[in-house]
Design goal:
single chain; 79 residues; mainly beta; SH3 type barrels; 5-stranded antiparallel sheet; 5 strands
Length: 79
Amino acid sequence: MITIYVHIEGLETTVLDVEALPNPGDTSIIGRNPRKRDGKDVDYLQQGVNTIILPMRRIVFIEVFTDEREEEFETFIRE
């Protein structure tokens, strides 16, 4: 799963878990475990909702967070 921050037009930023990033031609995005940045429930969804489908036309932009292990890299320092 990939964690993304979805900035939706007119709504608070929503954090979602997605299986894959959307492609340029996609018209919607399917996300699981919708939540606010602080982990609390999203106000505009019914309690217990665990999957949402958002139309791409409402999304302003998406922030993608990589796994911390992917950000680690070896450095070589010459003495």
